[in-house]
């Protein structure tokens, strides 16, 4: 159902919802960016619509709401183990269409690939998603190429329209809160073209692994893993045990975000490792995003948000890589 | 919500410790439940972490885990196991399906600790020799002091054709020497078209052995391998063991060679 409401009333509704839900959205952190006088936009708790950065793309995705950077799985004391409490009992997340598609990629890994992940599910089941539209494409976005520029799989859509807010609700709780408001038709803003266009190669032959193509990246990539950490579809983690210095018998097991670009990702006990060459790490990631995941699950993994291109300190462009790979595959066929 | 938390390990009692070498012990652990040879458990040590260890033997209400002391977790297991318990999660992975090998000639080639994941198969065919048309176990170790499962070999030799070799002999060793591959051509196989080969060991040993088996006429679809990778979860989430569209923890670690040959890290 579509509604029009003024911002003050919507903020009052958010305040009411915040009693049950933690509300997360992209926030501007002034001066917190990599360089002096540069802001960063990342997810944080919001209380009013003014807290949310609607005009720019967030540097980081929403994924940390469901998959915290460091998440305690359980606490242990001698032979007792206690499952850690959830960081929140319910959440509302403001996000864009590409990220909403990213959510489906996370669901696939954490709910369908092997056993159901207890920690993901308990957060996911109690999280509502509010779509933020995109009137214009941002720099490096290629959502149209990836088919993620539109989504109707939201709990609500929300757009700031001057002093008013336009809402399309698929959520009964919100419908109840908005019951007195004038109903109008609200269609989410979505871009229909991006400046960046990618063409994904069909049927990439396995021989591409040995192509000198990846050597370029071997020299440029510094294995910092930033591309993985900003990516809403990167979901790998590493286990980490810690124990308390005051009591060596007690501690906790955590999982922390992992990156397939960073050293140590494949290290086994005894010292053997795979993909020492950083170009091969790039190959591993690229093939996962645009080939391997699809082979296993039927949809492309990459959602075309372009954050990896935005963040790379070596100016490596993922979208460029896909297009160059496409040319290479065509030439070889 | 009735889903069981797959990350919380259970306590298992150490029934027996069998010392093979200074750095390789078999821990006989209490476990009742279905388990296949070649599957693995995450051995979980609070404060130190977890290590994926394959099942090297299956008994009534026990599983054997042969652990090599090579890392942070396994060091701690060796230091502090005394008369105690270990936490486990699992079993994970597919393991070897006995059905694939019944009533066939079998050549099993193992290198070093690679014998652990296939030991359950050797035990099975040693106890049920009628289920195979001929079973050869070809095993290589680095040196005589690295030999694992010494006591089992005597038993296996009763029913199976066993060839053991070491890379570097020491004084007093009077068995076979050299790489496993050099013994392959002499192994009597009546019907190579239908014979199955199982190869587990270090990557280079597996590569050379497979090449040799194909050379003497084994069919690719009759060859089986088991892979080893870093794994933090064992349940398809952490991503460390992924190779192309394959998760070694879910789809493996045992692969038919027709699939296994395409796995490139």
Mean pLDDT of chain B: 93
Point out poorly predicted stretches of chain B: none
- Overall CATH class of the largest domain in chain B: Alpha Beta
- Tell me the major beta sheet of chain B: 7 strands, mixed
Spatial arrangement of strands, main beta sheet of chain A: 1-9-8-7-6-2-3
Bulk shape of chain A? globular
Strand percentage of chain A, roughly?
A: 15-25%
Within the largest sheet of chain B, what's the order of strands? 10-9-8-7-11-12-15
- Domain module count of chain A: 1
Number of helices, counting only DSSP H or I runs of 4 residues or more of chain B = 6
Largest sheet of chain A: 7 strands, mixed
Supply Rg of chain B: 18 Å
SS summary, helix count of chain A: 10
Helicity range of chain B = 10-25%
Helix-strand sequence of chain B: EEEEEHEEHEHEEEHEEEHEH
User: Structural class of the secondary structure composition of chain A?
Assistant: alpha/beta
Q: Let me know the number of strands of chain A.
A: 11
User: Whole-Å distance between the termini of chain A?
Assistant: 50 Å
End-to-end distance of chain B, in Å?
Answer: 37 Å
Keywords (chain A): Iron, Iron-sulfur, Metal-binding
GO molecular function (chain A): iron-sulfur cluster binding; metal ion binding
Pfam families (chain A): Fer4_22
InterPro entries (chain A): 4Fe4S_Fe-S-bd, 4Fe4S_Fe_S_CS, Helical_ferredxn, Sulphite_reductase_A
């Amino acid at each position: 159902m579509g509604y029009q409401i003024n911002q003050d009333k919507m903020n009052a509704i958010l305040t009411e919802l915040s009693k049950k839900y933690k509300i997360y959205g992209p926030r501007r952190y002034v001066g917190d960016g990599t360089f002096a006088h540069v802001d960063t936009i990342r997810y944080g708790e919001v209380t009013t619509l003014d807290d949310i950065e609607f005009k720019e793309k967030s540097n980081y995705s929403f994924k940390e709401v469901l998959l915290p950077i460091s998440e305690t799985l359980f606490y242990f004391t001698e032979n007792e183990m206690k499952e850690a409490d959830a960081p929140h009992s319910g959440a509302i997340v403001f996000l864009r269409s590409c990220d909403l598609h990213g959510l489906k990629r996370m669901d696939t890994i954490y709910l369908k690939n092997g056993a159901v992940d207890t920690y993901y599910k308990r957060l996911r089941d109690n999280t509502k998603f509010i779509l933020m539209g995109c009137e214009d494409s941002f720099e490096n976005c290629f959502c149209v190429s990836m088919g993620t520029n539109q989504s109707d799989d939201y709990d609500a859509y929300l757009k700031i329209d001057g002093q008013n807010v336009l809402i399309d609700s698929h959520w009964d709780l919100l419908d109840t809160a908005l019951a007195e408001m004038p109903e109008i038709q609200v269609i989410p803003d979505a871009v229909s073209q991006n400046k960046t266009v990618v063409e994904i190669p069909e049927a990439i032959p396995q021989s591409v692994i040995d192509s000198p193509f990846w050597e370029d990246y071997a020299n440029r990539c510094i294995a910092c893993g930033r591309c993985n950490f900003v990516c809403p579809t990167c979901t790998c983690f590493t286990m980490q045990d810690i124990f308390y210095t005051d009591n060596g018998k007690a501690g906790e097991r955590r999982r922390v975000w992992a990156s397939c670009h960073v050293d140590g990702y494949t290290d086994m006990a005894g010292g053997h490792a795979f993909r020492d060459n950083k170009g091969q790490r790039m190959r591993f990631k690229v093939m996962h995003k645009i080939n391997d995941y699809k082979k296993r699950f039927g949809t492309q993994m990459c959602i075309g948000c372009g954050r990896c291109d935005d963040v790379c300190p070596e100016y490596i462009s993922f979208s460029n890589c896909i297009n160059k790979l496409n040319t290479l595959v065509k030439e070889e066929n | 919500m009735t889903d069981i938390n797959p990350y919380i390990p259970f306590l298992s009692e150490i029934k027996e410790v069998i010392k093979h070498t200074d750095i390789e012990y078999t821990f006989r652990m209490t476990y009742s439940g279905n388990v296949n040879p070649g599957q693995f458990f995450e051995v979980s040590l609070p404060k130190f972490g977890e290590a994926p260890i394959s099942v090297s033997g299956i008994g009534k209400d026990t599983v054997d885990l042969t652990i090599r002391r090579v890392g942070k977790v396994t060091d701690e297991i060796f230091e502090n196991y005394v008369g105690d318990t270990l936490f486990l999660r699992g079993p994970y992975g597919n393991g070897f399906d006995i059905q694939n090998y019944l009533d066939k000639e079998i050549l099993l080639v193992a290198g070093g600790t690679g014998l652990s994941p296939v030991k359950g198969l050797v035990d099975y065919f040693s106890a049920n020799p009628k289920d195979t048309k001929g079973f050869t176990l070809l095993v290589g170790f680095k040196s005589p002091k690295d030999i694992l499962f010494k006591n089992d070999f005597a038993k296996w030799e009763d029913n199976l054709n066993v060839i053991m070799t070491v890379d570097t002999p020491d004084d007093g060793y009077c068995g076979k020497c050299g790489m496993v591959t050099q013994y392959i051509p002499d192994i009597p196989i009546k019907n190579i078209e239908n014979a199955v080969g199982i190869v587990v060991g270090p990557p280079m040993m597996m590569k050379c052995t497979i090449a040799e088996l194909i050379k003497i006429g084994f069919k690719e679809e009759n060859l089986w391998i088991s892979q080893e990778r870093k794994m933090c979860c064992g349940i398809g989430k952490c991503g460390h063991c992924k190779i192309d569209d394959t998760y070694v923890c879910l789809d493996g670690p045992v692969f038919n060679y027709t699939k296994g040959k395409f796995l490139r890290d």
